[in-house]
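Hello,

Our lab assistant flagged a job as stuck in the queue for most of the afternoon. It eventually completed. Since we weren't sure the result was trustworthy after the delay, we are filing this so someone can double-check. Below is the sequence as submitted and the structure that was eventually returned. Let us know if re-running is recommended.
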Amino acid sequence: MTMTRPQSPPVAADGVGASARRPDAMSKVRGDFAYSSDLWHDEMVWGATVRSPHPHARIVSVDVSAALALPGVHAALTAADVPGVNRYGLETRDQPVLAEDVVRYIGEPVAVVAAGTPELARRAAGLVRVEYAELPAVTDPERALDSPGVHEGGNLVRHLRIRRGTPATADVVVTGEYEVGMQDQAFLGPESCLAVPAGQGVDLYCSTQWLHVDQDQLAECLALPKEDVRLTLSGVGGAFGGREDLSVQAHACLLALRLDRPVKMSYGREESFAGHVHRHPARMRYEHGATRDGRLLYVKADILLDGGAYASTSAAVTGNAGCFAIGPYEVPAVEVDCRAVYTNNPPAGAMRGFGAVQVCFGHESQMDKLAAALGLDPVELRLRNTVSTGSVMATGQRVEGPAPVAELLRRVAGKPVPPPAGDDPRLLPGGTSNSTRAGQLVRGVGYGLSVKNICKSAGYDDYGTARVRLFAHDGETVAEVHTAAAEVGQGLVTVQAQIARTELAAARVTILPADTAVGDAGTSSASRQTWISGGAVRAACLAVRAQVLERAAVRLGEPAADLVYGGDTVTAPSGRSIALAELLATGDVDETAVFRHRATEALDPETGQGDAHVAYAFAAHRAIVDVDPELGSVRVVEIACAQDVGKAINPAAVEGQMHGGIAQGLGLAVMEEIRLRDGRILNPSFTDYLIPTTMDMPPTVLDILELPRPDSPYGLTGVGEPPLLSAPAAIAAAIRDAVGAAAGALDRIPMTPEAVATAVLEHPM
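-- returned structure --
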């Protein structure tokens, strides 16, 4: 890994810029870290969910009598037992807590039961009798555009139109149709929570990505004041967007409040596939026009996203997919239509990359096709068209911050190429099955460039809250940081501690559990938490430091502005000083701060123009693959990734994010897909839903650029999503490069062995 950064002061021990160790690292390595599935209460009972077996049906009746007659069963609830609004949803309250009249996808919750053991609860759920009258199911998004059926108000969730400039006559025009399958977040810890009745309300311990938005929705469903629904984050076993929507939370709370005793709910893997949203499948049609020397003149794109049965984040994903449909390129004329539709498939929602992943496969496939039509090297074509600082994006917004896209591409393109595979079967596409020989292989190289927004967009009031308390204990200064920001594995607890150490130089820093007792921190998504919650922690620390200096000014008799804050003392220009512990002996210093980034604006509904995004993040990938053309098997030999992070708050964590993003991108490129038939998930297990293992991961070559932004804390840029975005596109491009004549038939990811072998068979190399 290489890292480029401008000259800066030395990095404080475990402060901002250091690769500080995660406080939960050792317990996770040892296996004794407490995840949400480990929650326990001596008086608890277990909840289980009754789910629809049909993609679309009217509920005629629900009979829970047989379940209640089973000894050890304590409750069985239906939609009639929801005390408040029987609807929830991140952006649109359209999803029932329990279906009351119609089910719209296979797996939709219809009833919940509680019993003394999880096995008994599942048995009782099987005894609930639901009579359905089946309705026609709409499972094809193209059909959903033109037919009624899923929702009474129509099947269109959102249509984003982007229009800028007038397409000129092009010397070369290329068109293409592309498709991206449904990907699962594949987090290792299934949904779990523990609901405990307390006072007039409920205490909920859960794994989530946004405590306060859960609180808002639950309070409405439970008909309780928000302050009576208290949430505490429990150990989260991965998220990647799949925990933004409610799953077990409302059901456990309903049962706990009905029984006035603690209720635990925990999904198995198959139920987890039904219980959370997935990445939107996409169908895309593109047309690119360019001059003979490779200058883009116009791009037209028509993008269709399958949103599944309920809205979730489909409207926002549509916004992202449309905004970034042309990629990080300067294009004078743009015509984009991006739609998301309801179908009777499982709901789609947030997943790492949030719409930009799908369109990246589309626009990068087109750039390769255009390069071939022009007889240009794919790298050279991209270099002639990349955006830079000051460029205008498809939405008319000017790129104000660093935009080193060309530099990122040059860096990955300039890396040495690994030598050809030898006879070691572990390095061949067939692996140790010995199905491939080195002489059968063809090698390919592919590139991908990507762009995505950082933080929330389009006028959203995006902010974070942090409370910081500084106090003395046993002669040491201790900084206590409290936010509601969800640690979902990304290392936020480490970052918050690093900021407190940097700003307060405290001997010890304690990060309190995230809960709703402190103000909203927003969601752990959109690559925003280090910027927003990190900014709030920094602001609160600075407020604490100011208060300490005011106290010292009184004691030292000198202006606070002249005093120097140190880790142990406050010192005046005269040389007089006072110990921090002495200042704190008179009482703690406690400050709460709210941090906001600059304002954005909504896109014009007719033209899609507007200053909608806080910032842009860019990344470049180069993939090298070996392909057995007869079997269609692929081995990714190496992936190089270059990314501008603004400021690496924790370089080791940045590197980890890049490795993780590349792994998810590799999975989408060659193996990961939820397979559906008539709305039913055919592979709801990690036996049949394949994710990359350590044996599938290639060596990665990472290049981290640090080009500080002027408008963010420490100059940072969010890092979580960019390393994923263009990895699938680069791998797909490399596979096409390897198989030559068959490349045109490979227009869908994942590119499975069957798809590759079929393409080669139909278009011999």
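-- support follow-up --
The delay was a queue issue, not a problem with the job. The result is valid. The mean pLDDT is 96. The longest strand covers residues 615-628.
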